Amino acid sequence: METLFEYSNRLLNGVNTTFTRYLYDQINWKNRLIGIIGPRGIGKTTLVLQHIKNHLDPRYTLYVTADDFYFAKNRLYELASHFVKFGGTHFIIDEIHKYPDWSNELKLIYDYHPQLQVIFTGSSVLDIKKGSADLSRRAVLYPMQGLSFREYLLLFHKIEVPKFTLEEIVTYPSRVISLSHPLLLFSDYLKKGYYPFALEPDFDIKLFQVINQTLESDIPVYADMNVSTGRKLKQLMAIVAESVPFKPNMSKIAEMLAISRNNIADYLLYMEEAGMVSQLRDETNGIRGLGKVNKVYLDNTNLVYGLANENPNKGNIRETFFMNQVRVHHQVVASKNVDFKIGTMDFEIGGKNKSLKQIKTLGNGYVVKDDIESGYLNTIPLWYFGLMY
């Protein structure tokens, strides 16, 4: 355990706490069992290390990563029990999905050590959700996604901009935000601002590593797929990437990938849960709340630029950005009249020359335009929607 403490303290010493993600202040850190889940590369590890450094006593706090070689011969539960005997109060487990039988051991730790708080992170949303049924009465799960445009401005350029609710954005579209050259910064964000590791060298290489590890390892391993199925996932991702956006035709896709059409919906759902794609569903009043899939987008614009063979379609980028940013606080569904519907509001997305024609007959319609700095009446700049978290 001494070696684990040394590793934990070494990581803490290198953590910068000047910038924290949007989720940091939304978590109730007093819960006994906290799970922070989300795609690879979005800053979950940094977030928990910042919490330790800011609020916990390192003498009684142990951070471990579940793929540590230590766990080749030792159980998670046994380590927690040993830690408690020496006065440990906070046990932080990173990438818990890499530990076999993590769900059962978390339950044991929770039930037998009520004085110990456990915080865990998981890169594979699929695996966390698969095991969370048994933990539903114990764990509080917090989903997390990549940087908003607002967070990018602060982290990359030290520019502080206030948060705005959706209601504030649509009510005051002409509000001038003191931000010089927002369109230049916005363009850079769309290409490489969603993942914090874009601050480091070789962003393109690291982005492809995230994609490959998610499709070739995370999903196949934890959804009980074989290696060849992982390759099919990459092919399906390529199909989505080349579309503008992708309207799923299950029979056609099945023919292209030489697989059963019955598997396509499952594959897309796995990819959505893992943060690779985003599915826009029809509005419905049914029990499940959401209807069939209307369109499929890549999860964020960095993936669009990273996977585009040539210049990506601008319309696709605009719609991908809008859906990605707004979904954090709102349910976004397909609209019969325009691109998106949120509650009673309809949104049509386009460039600076987009007309108001499609929203003229709508009582609560808005045109969201790219390449404009400020809004007016029912016209709102696209980049404004990146200031919501």
What does this molecule look like?
It comes from Flavobacterium fragile. This is AAA family ATPase. It holds the Pfam family DUF4143. InterPro entries: AAA+_ATPase, AAA_14, DUF4143, P-loop_NTPase. With about 400 residues, this protein is of the alpha/beta class. The chain has helices at about 1-15, 45-55, 75-85, 100-110, 125-130, 150-155, 165-170, 180-190, 205-220, 225-240, 250-255, 260-275, 300-305, 315-325; strands at about 35, 60-65, 90-95, 115-120, 140-145, 275-285, 290-300, 335, 340, 345-350, 365-370, 380. A hairpin with a 5-residue loop joins β8 and β9.
Number of strands: 12
Distance, first to last CA:
39 Å
Report strand order across the widest sheet.
2-3-4-1-5
Shape designation = globular
Class derived from helix and strand content: alpha/beta
Give me the Rg, rounded: 22 Å
Written as H for each helix and E for each strand, in order along the chain, the element string is HEHEHEHEHEHHHHHHHEEHHEEEEE
Low-confidence stretches at least 5 residues in length (pLDDT < 50)? Answer: none
The fraction of residues in strands falls at: 15-25%
Largest sheet, strands/sense/barrel = 5 strands, parallel
How helical, in percent, are the residues? 40-55%
Count the DSSP helices: 14
Rounded mean pLDDT is 91
